[in-house]
Specification:
With 345 residues, this protein is an alpha/beta fold. The protein has 15 helices and twelve strands. The chain folds into two domains: 201 residues, NAD(P)-binding Rossmann-like Domain (Rossmann fold, 3-Layer(aba) Sandwich), CATH 3.40.50.720; 130 residues.
Length: 345
């Protein structure tokens, strides 16, 4: 009998999420193609060099192909399309056209979509714009912390190798239990993708319930917003009790939004100032030798700032629709906006 055919996967976007997802899927034996903008083609003509904080080694990633025309998606019969764009890019005018193109190309086919963009209740928007069937799309995100070494230089611990990092296109660390997570909005999509990813043998993809997935991610953006007010200190050093109390109240308000169900309400009941601070400090420690807050300063304080702000505004809008005024989150956003005005002067 012949071997099983290789899974054909299209990844939209070749930033840190796209490249690291593609790398692990390639290790799993998948046939990976990237959809990129034409000006990115020259960069992908050369193998991608990846510095791994986990073992202090440089990896070469070259087993991929790319296309630059979204219209080529049609008729290509991909098993999966993984969207690795940020929420703002996916929802702007260009992104809107792309979503419609994806819908036209994959509607009525067996192609499954992993929506890797992060934004509040984004899947509902994506289904409406794309016109795809509910069972064809699930949410997913990369738990591996990765960044472009050309975009930012992070502080280094003694166990890291600056010479190797200087040769890398991306650096990453896979220290969480799950390198990738999908939710079960579409169980067939989630379980099928996890099975492929897990065949890589060095990273793990988890399948979580949709409420658990959402309640894990959505409250984080209040924390990132507050970190700007604290000027991105180590999590273990956060000390302004009044401001931290406001942050934790904002987290609880987000947890209690209807999209999170009973799990969110229970999470809000057990979230405390000391408990949340301890869990963040543990996250920070687990990421070593990566400097987590330096990473977050770049990733959420610069690169994805617009997405993060819009995410919190969406939380407020959903809260208003549910009759929840969310005063703590409103106050936190007001302070962040005032901070931005002062910083710009």
């Amino acid at each position: 009998m012949g071997e099983n055919p290789r899974s054909r996967i299209l990844i939209i976007g070749a930033g840190s999420m796209g490249i690291l997802t593609g790398y692990h899927l390639s290790l799993a034996g998948a046939d990976v193609t990237f959809l990129i903008r034409p000006h990115r083609a020259k960069l992908l003509d050369s193998p991608q060099m990846l510095y791994c904080y986990d073992d202090n080694q440089l990896k070469e990633y070259k087993r991929y192909s790319y296309i630059t025309d979204p219209l080529l998606i049609a008729g290509s019969n991909y098993d999966y399309v993984v969207i690795a764009l940020d929420g703002v890019s996916l929802r702007n005018e260009t992104g809107l056209d792309l979503v419609k193109t994806i819908g036209d190309a994959t509607r009525g086919t067996n192609t499954k979509i992993v929506l890797g963009s992060v934004f509040f209740d984004l899947r509902a928007w994506f289904l409406q714009v794309s016109g795809l069937a509910d069972e064809q799309v699930t949410n997913g995100h990369l738990g591996i912390h990765a960044y472009s070494t050309k975009a930012v230089t992070l502080p280094l611990e003694t166990s890291t190798d600056p010479n190797l990092i200087s040769k890398a296109d991306f650096a990453y660390i896979d220290k969480l239990d799950d390198g990738f997570t999908v939710d079960d909005s579409s169980p067939a999509v989630a379980n099928g993708f996890a099975k492929i990813y897990n065949a890589c043998g060095i990273s793990h993809c988890a399948v979580k319930s949709a409420p658990e997935y959402a309640v894990t991610i959505n409250p984080l953006f209040a924390i990132f917003a507050a970190c700007e007010l604290f000027d991105w200190p180590k999590f273990q050093d956060i000390g302004d009790e009044e401001l931290w109390g406001l942050v934790v109240s904002s987290v609880r308000e987000i947890q209690q939004l209807g999209i999170h169900g009973e799990l969110g309400r229970e999470s809000a009941r057990i979230t405390t100032e000391t408990g949340l601070a301890a869990s963040l400090a543990a996250w920070e420690k687990s990421m070593l030798p990566l400097d987590l807050q330096a990473f977050n300063r770049f990733h959420h304080g610069e690169k994805l700032r617009a997405q993060d702000r819009e995410h919190l505004q969406a939380c407020l809008s959903y809260g208003a629709a549910e009759g929840k005024p969310m005063p703590a989150l409103k106050d936190l956003l007001r302070r962040v906006q005032e901070h931005e005005v002062v910083a710009a002067q």
